[in-house]
Amino acid sequence: MFSGILSLMKKPLSEREKQVFYEIVKNPTHTDKNISQSTDIKLSTITAIRRRLKRNGMFYTTRIPCLQFLGAEMLAVNYSVYKATAPLELRLKTGKRFASDHKEVFWAVNEYVQSIAFHFSSNYTDVRSNISELEKHHTEQGFLDEGGIELLVFPFKLTYIPYFFDFAPLLAHSFGITEETSELNEKGGRSGGLPYPFDNHSVNMSQTSKHVFYGLIKNPEMTDTELSDKIKISQRTITKLRKQFETQGMFRTVIIPNLSKLGFKMMVFDHAKINLKVQGDQRAIILQALMGIQPPISFIVGSSDVVAMTVYEDFNTYRRSINRFAEVYKYENIFVKEPKRLLFSLSELDMIKDHVYSPIVAKILDIDEMRL
What is the reported pTM? Predict the structure, then answer.
């Protein structure tokens, strides 16, 4: 996602541009030729549209590492609501230092009196100690309201993540494109989520493999040739290892659209406690129905907690969706109580850390970032 006040494009996207944009986001590793063959759009048209979208700052590329296959045990999410009287500049400075100092944090945002951060971690101790440090500082400064900092821990072995910064369903919904739906289940997988680690093995990597993996994560928009020049490993080796990592599901290439330029105004963060009396199969059906109201960009289902992030074009769209959402969850009784909800304005969002994965990758692989 993009921070700051971003203006809309001078002209809205044409229907053809919407279709190409959707295909690029849905299939980020496909070449223009692949997309042309699957859509019957001329190759030259796709190439021209992709270049124009990129030139206008409509998207960028990142790679999300699937660190559960390298020994990481969990994904963690923390969110906070601050006192309105807390000095914004000082609080933001502290938040930025926290995100910068702690390698586990890879995505973090602030807006006035609220914040969210996502972490990957090898163990609970690292995450808990990081949060305790931040909470101690914020408490001493009088920043926090009585709720403090909410920390949610999602062990990979007990968590299903069908959507993880997956924007294709959102764009399909917004652009009026029919998309095949995926069933939400406890053991399935989606190309836009994080793979479920059915076994307990960790992938063993040579030093060369570690350096290439780190380089691919840190420089997601470089070609194999450009990365070869940077890390002094042959292009042939990089290409071979990249394809191997992709086949093994070691990372996910993701296109991040500029939501503000697409006309979206709001981001909504929800945290709900699951009613454990609801059976697993029935729970999956209800959650699928909830996601169908407004496709989330991230959706994390733990043993007792659910976290969702959604974006909306405007407040009226949000209000209609929330009313429908409330009807479903109240009737089905899937949650213990009404979800906690934070509303963010995309135009006023302060992006503290935006898909910065290389520090935690280096830490888990035990390699020196400064030498790469």
Answer: 0.88
pLDDT on residue 196 = 60
184 and 221 fall within a common domain: no
Report the sign of the C-alpha dihedral through residues 227, 166, 115, 124, in that order.
negative
Domain that holds residue 20: 15-56
Do 266 and 239 lie in one domain? The reply is: no
Tokens at 280, concatenated:
């697993």
49 close to 16: Cβ distance less than 8 angstroms:
yes
Same domain assignment for residues 177 and 245: no
Query: How many other CB atoms are there within 10 angstroms of residue 223's CB atom?
Result: 12
> Is the predicted pLDDT of residue 337 greater than 90, yes or no?
no
Taking CA atoms, 306 is separated from 117, 200, 297, in Å, by 15, 24, 14
Claim to verify: residue 169 and residue 284 sit in the same structural domain? yes
Answer whether residue 154 is part of any domain. no
**pLDDT on residue 280:** 67
Domain match, 270 and 338 both: yes
Check: CB of residue 291 under 8 Å from CB of residue 299.
Answer: yes
Task: Report which of residues 7 and 302 the model is more confident about.
Answer: 302
Nearest residue to 299 (alpha-carbon basis) of 202, 184, 212, 157: 184
Task: Please give the tally of structural domains in the chain.
Answer: 3
Max CA separation in the chain (angstroms): 61
User: 301 and 227: one domain?
Assistant: no
Q: What is the amino acid identity at position 170?
A: L
Averaging pLDDT over each range in 76-85, 265-274, 292-301, which range is the top one? 265-274
* Same domain? 268 vs 328: yes
DSSP state for residue 66 in the 8-state scheme: -
The CA distance from 296 to 325, in Å, is 13
pLDDT classification of 21: cutoffs 50, 70, 90:
very high
Q: Indicate whether 24 and 172 sit together in one domain.
A: no
- 114, pLDDT greater than 70: yes
| Amino acid identity for residue 119 in this structure | H
Tokens of 365: 């692989």
pLDDT tens string 223-264: 999 999 999 999 999 999 999 999 988 999 999 999 999 999
23 in any annotated domain: yes
Q: In this predicted model, which residue has the larger pLDDT, 198 or 91? A: 91
| Residue 46 in domain | yes
